[in-house]
Amino acid sequence: MSRDKSSRRASAEQQTLDVSEAQIAVHWPEEDYFLPPASFIAQANLTDQDVFARFSLDKFPECFKEFADLLDWYKYWETTFDASDPPFWRWFVGGTINACYNCVDRHLTAYRNKAAIHFVPEPEDETVQHVTYQELYVRVNEFAAMLRDSCGLKAGDRVTLHMPMVAELPITMLACARLGVIHSQVFSGFSGAACADRILDSESRLLITMDAYWRGGKLIDHKEKADTAFAEAAEKGHQAEKVLIWQRYSGKYSSPTKLVEGRDVIVNEAVKAFRGKRVEPVQMPAEAPLFLMYSSGTTGRPKGCQHSIGGYLAYVAWTSKYIQDIHPEDVYWCMADIGWITGHSYIVYGPLALAASSVVYEGVPVYPDAGRPWRIAENLGVNIFHTSPTAIRALRRSGPDEPAKYNYHFKHMTTVGEPIEPEVWKWYHRSVGKGEAVIVDTWWQTETGGFLCSTVPALHKMKPGSAGPGIPGIHPVIYDDDGNELARGSGKAGNICILNPWPGAFQTIWKAPERYVKTYYGRYCRDPKSKDWRDWPYMAGDGAVDAADGYFRILGRIDDVINVAGHRLGTKEIESAALLVPDVVEAAVVPVADEIKGRVPELYVSLKPGVEASEDIAKRVADSVVERIGSIAKPHRVLIVPDMPKTRSGKIMRRVLASLSNHQDPGDVSTLANPEIVDSLRALVK
Ligand code: 6R9
């Protein structure tokens, strides 16, 4: 079906978009937009046009009560928002709550026998585990009892988790939350050394890990990293008390790395002593920390972003319900790793707070083949799907026709993590979503807890390549480098900031409050003495354009904007143009120093399997960039490469490419998923 036809039909079928069109005050160039399917709108959680008025800036902060009212509180809060110590905002002050209770116990009456977690092992001959809410309740309680009674953990203690994607990971997080213990989950792909830094910084009492896990056909020894992590942290000044090890196969230790007597504890054995035990959830102040999530900044040291219990949980519950459109009967699959913020907010806490069934899968999207995600979707009846542009590009590259072979139906899909090229968005919409699903492009960060910009799925049109307006309650603004606010809808690039605080925002950087203030509020704070939140816009560190329709298009991190002869070019704009050339599957642009123009873009592209690199393709790529953006953006060179250097989470490491292009040392590349690529790229760049 052509896009034009489908848009026309959908607009005839429903009129509910009128008010939101007014809200974003535009004249829509019809061909740039897609409409949510009428079938989606008919069942959506949020179809009420008044939502924008309810969350206008003059309703701040009381509008956020609606978020917290999705939760069960032991004691209702007295003060919705406390700004007495800017920018250390406090939400729902005086309230007491437990995150585990809200994600587990309160669902038992209505949903006891419903799956909370579907765990899909990588080996396809292994049985999928369906963990019901009742089972989750039992397992979380038993493990919480062990943490409390055998390890002596109490509210406020920190614990580092270095766990792969298994059902035991949410079980561990929830057991910590039940006790008020602060968890800090480190992405399993990170090295033992990276884990050590996080144990040290958080002064964790325990390290909780797993013996092994499957990835790309290999059973990886994971316990080995725990030994490095423990030893390095101890060497640098913090010795954890114990290492708790879950078994990938209960009853069998699947690692060649020896256990350390007196330090290592096999959880599957030790927890047996707590069979049938129940632990009362600890009634925590809303403002107590729920977890730390370390994120990399511009400097080397990772930042421990500290998230609260009440504000965070309220924020992810509301956004899961209204932006992800999760109903309790939905089977929801977010393909991210729980080791990233997306997994915390939108695999564990948001969906479980709403009593959904959330899929946890082991492995990588394209192994053993690019049909795996669609088999999982078909087998489990997944109807909400959530992933990143990188995964979408990989699936499009290795199996563009795979989705059509499987009988699944998504009502809703999300893209998150990087800007998505319109070409890739359209494949996602047409091939993965089969034209039946609404798509939200959600822009946010580790620091922000949950979504900042996105369309409201039943109320806004979708625009490929743009995240959308601020979600209800979020008021973004664009500043230039001198701190001047750009006019709304100016179409000019600048630094995107959020005018108002919101409950999901992180509270501080663990043990580095000055760095928190400086990094996020230093640049645009109007008066450091002011107690008025209006003087403290939050700086996200991303470049963005506010288009005439009020949709924000994220250009990437501020340092990803290439300034060519005084013109700001978004790396993503150039890359999107390159991707229009049919044989190109991935593109990454980096700035190269140039005597005349300051910087010029150099473009790396990889091609579809089987396509030979040629001068002709390189020329077509350069022509496409010039055609889509103008000669100002013309790449200095187009380099056709066998693969891109990537992080373990799949993001292209443009920093490495930029160093190579500028004949600088790329530094430590050992944490890349494919460090071996760097040498062959260096040879190509010469
Ligand atoms: C959630 C997450 C945050 C950075 C952020 C921005 C980029 C995230 C995006 C997006 C364009 C989107 N980003 N979502 N860019 N469109 N929909 O990814 O958190 O890992 O902290 O990364 O990712 O640059 O500043 P995190």
UniProtKB/TrEMBL annotation:
Keyword Transmembrane helix: no
Ranges for domain AMP-binding enzyme C-terminal: 573-651
Tree of life domain: Bacteria
Domain named AMP-dependent synthetase/ligase: residues: 106-501
Domain Acetyl-coenzyme A synthetase N-terminal: 54-103
Enzyme class: ligase
Enzyme Commission code(s) on record: 6.2.1.1
Keyword annotations of the record: Acetylation, ATP-binding, Ligase, Nucleotide-binding
GO biological process: acetyl-CoA biosynthetic process from acetate
Pfam families given in the database record: ACAS_N (PF16177), AMP-binding (PF00501), AMP-binding_C (PF13193)
Entry's Gene Ontology molecular function annotations: acetate-CoA ligase activity; AMP binding; ATP binding
Recorded family membership: Belongs to the ATP-dependent AMP-binding enzyme family.
The protein, known as: Acetate--CoA ligase
Organism: Trinickia violacea
Gene symbol of the encoding locus: acs
